[in-house]
Write a structure and sequence with these properties.
By secondary structure, the protein is an all-alpha fold. The chain has helices at 9-16, 34-56, 65-84, 93-109, 115-126, 139-172, 182-222, 226-266, and strands at 21-23, 31-33.
Amino acid sequence: MASDTELTPTSYIDHHLTYLTAQVGEGSFWVLHVDTLVTSVILGVISLGFIWLIVRKATSGVPSKSQAFVELAVEFIDNEVKNTFHGNRHVFVAPTALTIFVWVLMMNAMDILPIDIMAWILEHAFGLHNWKIVPTTDVNTTFALALSIWFLMLFFNVKVKGWGGWMHELFCTPFGKSPLLWILNLLFNFIEYVSKPLSHSLRLFGNIYAGEIIFLLLGMWAATGVSGTIFGSILGAGWAIFHILIVTLQAFIFMMLTVVYISMAHESH
């Protein structure tokens, strides 16, 4: 942050946690986080566009390094889906899982970029004083993704079981078909359906947001003097290496939960 005359921990953290917003209606609810939306779209176009271009140019001969990389990723996701979902995974579930994994991984990976350097580039090159470059540290992003999966889960419940079959499942499982248990069954299933998108979204958000806060705290430590710069830089590099595992693991967990939820929608109880 280049323009502040006095750097304090509060101002430093507030600066990096402030969104670039646009008011689209009356009230605080109708506010768009422009940085989140733009960054998410750019990362989606770059990552999925790259895969699309490689697949278009794929050959049956000796693959190039980029084709081998994409084939490895596709095969990995397909095997994971095959072990979890036992329907026709090639029609919808496997491509969806691949899309989610790649997109969420790219959004998470933005947290590894040096936050102060990126803020300086965005401010001096584009005039953007506030711009959060990690979309998954915005709970709106993770909740929107989780809600999309939740609606897909509801869709497949109705498509596979029919309205009657799904209603029967809501009222008659898991405790039995007795009319005395209908309310209890419905309450149990309601809690389950509500908790799925909440846990799905908050798990990803919490882990990536916590990582961002740690980077900010290490950055503040590095600004305290020579010793702070040395130890802050060493710990920051170590945390960045460890964070590579976190961003990859959280993308994988989010993808696997998606497959599990869609698989559960295809199963009858």
